């Protein structure tokens, strides 16, 4: 086969040892570099900007801070405070996910077309002008609900937390409400997509027979989609634990608040202990989430196999049984215990004084600042945020690809274990913590933000890239090796083409996430819209803050659309 291809290449005047697509790839790379150059400049990746990384004063400051990490603080009083903050972090994540679930379910039901009676047509949907008006009304309602979901998930949870802290004061209530809103929008979107992707016929048949939407959901959609819905909810809880870690940077309690205090006081010993707690908590959440998802998948497979063995058996929800019952009890206990432990005092949010404070806040917040001078500053901040996210994501993709090779076991078991540990550490430490460290090395500004995003995202992408490499078929690369190709050529032309689409998709998805994180890295002096927002809220300039948050939302929507278009075009 290889000989035939070589002969054909010679027949057409192409050397067999030359990549026929090399010119096209080189042209695409050149175009990408030209397009990225302005963003690299905005993000501080200039000779002068990179020289700050080696500035003796910055190196000495970072060295003194890192040297203070040893020995870690292990005093009994501090460890008790650390344990309390860790429990508070998990409780905030669990309560926030519960609130998000309560918000997501009605939103998902409202936008799911499968459950729309007006879309049925015929006897159920009716004929004529009035049913057509109902269809238009239903579509308008779904569009408005999708807009609400987009706003909820488009504003980063840290921004929501900062707003709630300004309105309701310090404490975990701000974190729980922020997680509830942002994750409510995320859960609603994915819930609706899962329900739409399943077999719609049982639900449609129930609706056509006169059943209500809840009955159609319970008996038509949930039996075939319960496993995916539950698995994604558990995964989002894992993400909420990581998000809760950094809520304290805006005064919302938990481990983040301890870390913020330690960083500001340059107390390296306490920071080292808190970072170790970060790592342990995130890895524990990852492990629990992965275990629960495997249990759910195993229970679902057993249910599917049993149903396949009994052709006449009625469908039942995946996971129902001992595993499902135990999981439900654990989740209910975790949520109830979290609300009890936090003692949020949410009832106090509905008093007359609290309502007056909210009204006063909204009266100022809903009159955004639109002066030309301020809009110019917002536009520049948006460009900086875009540059931070794009450059950070690009650097992370390159670093992740390098780390993925040993993480996939291509250099032996020892290198695999070390690489995976390194990836776990990189992604376990939140971006805001990395930004605090990179700000010491590179100074305040967008370069610190881009480097922080690159370090954290390299851990995420390296893990995903490594898993894609492990799952890629080995036969093409082995065939090239047998034909005489070297290891590099076998990888580039046998393995890389198989995993490249997945790698690209993962990178674009992370860019969508990083644009939201880049918008808040300015809270620790890393430039962009976040830095301007932090200053505006600190000075109680709510009109300016409203304009900045609108810019964050618009930028997030634009990047989501661009990323989705690229994935469809390249997929």
Q: Topology, please?
A:
Elements: H1 2-11, H2 22-42, H3 47-51, H4 56-67, H5 76-111, H6 122-125, H7 129-154, H8 157-168, H9 172-197, H10 201-208, H11 213-245, H12 255-264, H13 268-309, H14 322-342, H15 352-365, H16 372-407, H17 413-428, H18 431-442, H19 446-471, H20 475-482, H21 487-518, H22 528-538, H23 542-570
Helix pairs in contact: 2-16, 4-18, 5-9, 5-11, 5-13, 5-14, 7-9, 8-9, 9-11, 10-11, 11-13, 12-13, 16-17, 16-19, 16-21, 16-22, 16-23, 17-19, 18-19, 19-21, 20-21, 21-23, 22-23
Describe the structure.
With 571 residues, the protein is an all-alpha fold. The protein has 2 domains: 26-67 and 365-570, MetI-like (MetI-like fold, Orthogonal Bundle), CATH 1.10.3720.10; 76-308 and 316-342, MetI-like fold (Orthogonal Bundle). Helices cover 79% and strands 0% of the residues. The chain is built from 23 helices and no strands. It has helices spanning 2-11, 22-42, 47-51, 56-67, 76-111, 122-125, 129-154, 157-168, 172-197, 201-208, 213-245, 255-264, 268-309, 322-342, 352-365, 372-407, 413-428, 431-442, 446-471, 475-482, 487-518, 528-538, 542-570. Helix 2 (22-42) packs across helix 16 and helix 18 (431-442) packs across helix 19. 42% of the residues are buried. The model is unreliable at 1-16, 122-130 and 311-320 (pLDDT under 50).
């Amino acid at each position: 086969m290889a000989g035939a291809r070589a002969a054909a290449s010679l027949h057409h005047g192409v050397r067999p040892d030359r990549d026929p697509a090399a010119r096209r790839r080189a042209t695409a790379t050149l175009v990408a570099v030209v397009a990225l150059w302005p963003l690299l400049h905005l993000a501080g990746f200039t000779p002068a900007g990179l020289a700050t990384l080696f500035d003796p004063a910055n190196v000495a400051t970072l060295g003194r801070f890192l040297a203070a990490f040893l020995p870690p603080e292990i005093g009994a009083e501090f460890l008790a405070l650390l344990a309390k903050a860790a429990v508070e972090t998990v409780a905030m994540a669990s309560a926030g996910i519960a609130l998000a679930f309560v918000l997501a379910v009605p939103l998902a039901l409202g936008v799911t077309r499968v459950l729309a009676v007006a879309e049925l047509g015929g006897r159920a949907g009716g004929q004529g002008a009035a049913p057509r008006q109902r269809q238009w009304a239903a579509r308008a309602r779904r569009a408005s609900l999708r807009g609400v979901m987009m706003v909820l998930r488009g504003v980063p949870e840290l921004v929501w937390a900062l707003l709630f802290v300004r309105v309701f004061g310090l404490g975990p209530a701000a974190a729980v409400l922020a997680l509830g809103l942002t994750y409510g929008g995320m859960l609603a979107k994915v819930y609706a997509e899962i329900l739409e992707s399943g077999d719609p016929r049982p639900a449609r048949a129930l609706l056509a027979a006169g059943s209500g939407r809840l009955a159609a959901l319970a008996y038509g959609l949930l039996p075939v989609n319960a496993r995916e819905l539950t698995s994604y909810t558990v995964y989002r809880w894992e993400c909420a634990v990581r998000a809760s870690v950094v809520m304290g940077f805006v005064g919302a309690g938990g481990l983040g608040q301890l870390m913020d205090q330690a960083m500001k006081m340059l107390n390296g010993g306490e920071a080292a202990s808190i970072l170790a707690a970060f790592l342990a908590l995130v890895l524990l959440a990852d492990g629990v989430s992965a275990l629960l998802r495997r249990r759910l998948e195993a229970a679902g497979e057993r249910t599917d196999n049993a149903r396949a063995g009994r052709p006449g058996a009625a469908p039942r929800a995946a996971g129902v049984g001992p595993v499902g019952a135990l999981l439900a009890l654990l989740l209910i206990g975790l949520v109830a215990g979290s609300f009890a432990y936090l003692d949020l005092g949410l009832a106090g949010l509905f008093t007359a004084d609290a309502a007056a404070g909210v009204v006063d806040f909204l009266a100022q917040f809903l009159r955004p600042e639109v002066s030309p001078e301020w809009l110019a500053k917002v536009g520049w901040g948006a460009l900086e945020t875009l540059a931070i996210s794009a450059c950070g994501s690009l650097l992370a993709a390159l670093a992740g690809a390098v780390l993925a090779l040993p993480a996939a076991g291509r250099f032996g078991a020892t290198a695999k274990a070390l690489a995976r540990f390194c990836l776990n550490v990189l992604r376990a430490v939140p971006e805001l913590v990395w930004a605090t460290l990179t700000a010491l090395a590179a100074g305040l500004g967008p370069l610190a933000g881009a480097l922080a995003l690159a370090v954290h995202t390299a851990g995420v992408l390296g893990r995903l890239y490594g898993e894609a490499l492990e799952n890629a078929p080995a036969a093409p690369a082995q065939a090239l090796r047998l034909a005489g190709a070297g290891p590099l050529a076998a990888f580039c032309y046998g393995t890389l083409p198989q995993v490249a689409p997945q790698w690209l998709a993962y990178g674009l998805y992370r860019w969508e996430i990083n644009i939201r994180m880049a918008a808040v890295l300015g809270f620790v002096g890393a430039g962009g819209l976040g830095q301007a927002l932090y200053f505006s809220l600190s000075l109680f300039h709510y009109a300016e803050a409203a304009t900045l948050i609108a810019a964050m939302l618009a930028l997030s929507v634009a990047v989501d659309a661009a990323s989705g278009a690229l994935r469809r075009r390249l997929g």
